[in-house]
Amino acid sequence: AQKLLQHSIAHSVPYAPRSVDEAINAGEPLPISEPTGPYAKAIDAIALALAGADGPEAPRRAGLMSWLRV
Is pLDDT at 55 greater than 60 in this prediction? Predict the structure, then answer.
């Protein structure tokens, strides 16, 4: 993909069909139904990068949805 786009890919979201199906069946967004899973971690990394906090000085967080108490 990088060769075709002629650009490096900074982030990717893992393919997790089982986790997606379980989240859909539970009626919850995937980062909430599996907050420590690889999908949630990837989304968290993308969000931090977009916010400009992806370097070593980036704040350590418990996850993108850590503010939400379920």
Answer: no
